[in-house]
Amino acid sequence: MDKCSFCGRTKKEASILIAGLEGHICDHCIEQAYSIMNEELGTKKNISFDTINLLKPAEIKAFLDQYRDITRRETGRTGWLFYSYVVAMIVTLVTAIVGLVLRAL
Description:
Elements: E1 17-19, E2 24-26, H1 27-41, H2 57-75, H3 80-104
Antiparallel strand pairs: 1-2
Helix pairs in contact: 2-3
């Protein structure tokens, strides 16, 4: 049965359980992480997106392609499994971060 990798709550005990390749995170742990971020960073509600360097999708792909190419040079294989894993982890993290930012607004 799927459970949160942080607190151990099962899917039945959580309202939402977000799946990554290697684990899961529940809505309770996301809320707790949000609270911790507020404590650590201060309770600023004004989030300035001017200081965040958002990359365009093509720039993100070029950055990730570096790792695929390094794997290809070192192993002689394309390294698509690792590349897919990295992309999936980034998508999971971005989804969680966007949820936190939207809650802050």
